[in-house]
Amino acid sequence: MADTNNKITEHDVVYAGGDKKIHYLAAGPVNGPLIIFVHGWPGTGITWKAQLDAFAGVGFRAVAPDMPGYGGSSTRRVIEDYSQEAIVEGMMALLADTGRDAAIWVGHDWGSGVTSSVAIQHPETVKALATIAVPYHTIELGWKGFLPLVDRDLYPADKYEFGQWDYMKHYEESFEKAVEWFESDVPGFCKAILQRASQPTGRFSTLSATVRANNGWMGIPKPPPVEATGPASLPPDVYDSFVADMQKTGFWAASAYYMNHERNAKYNGDGRKLTQPVLFIHAAWDLIVETKTSRLAEHMRQSVSNLTEATVEAGHFAQWEKPGEVNAALFRFIVEELPSEWPGFWNQGYTKRKALA
After folding, report:
1. What pLDDT is recorded for position 300?
2. pLDDT band at 138, cuts 50/70/90?
3. Measured torsion, CA atoms of residues 214, 217, 222, 227, in degrees rounded to the nearest 10
4. Domain hosting residue 156, numbered range
């Protein structure tokens, strides 16, 4: 945990007429500038611990929810609960529970889709947006947001119709089977997905582009056992908490995010042009959400008037593999683009003096 002044505390907010709940973690001074970290698939609030500690330590009010379907939040087996419209309702309830009307929003993976949806639907609540691995103006728009941007030199349409997103089609065609595979060995899968990435020698994602052809992930009947993989990229205490959460909830609700592309497209339409400061952090070694050499970031660049891009040499879970570099990119972005959101706003005698001639 953080030091005694920045201890991570647990909170719950009930919404949707009392039918749903979001559990979230918070650290740092209650009146500090608010920054909200939104995890993706899979994850829980505690997987942002490195960010909660770092940002609380310099005076931010740092918040990280268990997203619907995960941890201590609602995990109903209702597909529509995991549409962007339903998730954004939860995010507005979370924001209201902090006592604020706006925040800096940081998302990763599906969390990037969620924070992007917040920016589209409630731009007044977004002081700045930062997404990791998944660009704005992609996944939150349904299939149309990312499928047209597949690199057809790598994934010819006649052989790989859905490109590296073939695994998403597997969810739509065989949802229960997909979930059953993850749940056949939750600790084994969690440890496997938490392996540190290495620099790839190519850009083709055999893993994700051949899921349906292999009749499931990797063509094996269940995830590799925990003893078959190396150390996880999360610290041991965070990793143990994350795995325990996933064993408790399973993967049904978490995976239902992938079953709402049509609803999400209808909800978010063609997106919105953003004028707020936006930071995109490329995960350079990510083969599935490949943004460095593909066109995947193209629509974001056309839709954001104040865009900063940074690159971290890590796999998809960059904030777990290289938290220091991700935190540094976020800190620099805030200092340069939103100095008034820096804790204290340098109002305690900060003075720059020019050298004498």
Report:
1. 98
2. very high
3. 120
4. 4-160+263-346
What is the DSSP code (8-state) at residue 205? Answer: -
- Region 125-146: mean pLDDT is 98
In a domain, 299, yes or no: yes
Q: How far is CA 239 from the centre of its chain?
A: 17
pLDDT in tens, 81-92: 999 999 999 999
Number of domains in the chain: 1
Model confidence at 1: pLDDT above 60: no
CB of 191 within 8 A of CB of 226? yes
Phi and psi, residue 212, nearest 5°: -70, -40
Answer yes or no: are the C-beta atoms of 107 and 318 closer than 8 Å: no
Asked whether the beta carbons of 68 and 99 are under 8 A apart, the reply is no
Residue 168 within a domain? no
Cis peptide before 200 (omega within 30 of 0): no
Residue 119 and residue 113: Cα distance in Å, rounded? Answer: 10
- The arithmetic mean of pLDDT across residues 264-275, rounded, is 98
Share of the chain above pLDDT 90, in %: 92
Here the tokens at position 180 are: 């059953």
Summarised one tens digit per residue, pLDDT across range 147-157 is 999 999 999 99
Beta strands in 215-340 (DSSP E): 278-283, 307-312
Residue 260: per-residue pLDDT:
98
Residue 254 resides in a domain: no
35 is a domain residue: yes
Q: What pLDDT is attached to residue 47?
A: 98
User: Residue 217 CA to chain centroid, in angstroms?
Assistant: 22
Contacts of 346 (CB under 8 A, 6+ apart): 339
Its pTM stands at: 0.96
Angle value at C-alpha 283, between 279 and 288, nearest 5 degrees: 120
Q: What is the domain-level CATH number for residue 153? A: 3.40.50.1820
> 278 in helix, strand or coil?
strand
- CA–chain centroid gap for 250, Å, is 19
Mean pLDDT estimate for the chain: 95
Distant-in-sequence, close-in-space partners of 325: CB < 8 Å, separation ≥ 6 = 312, 314, 318
Q: What angle do CA 97, 237, 114 make, to 5 degrees?
A: 40
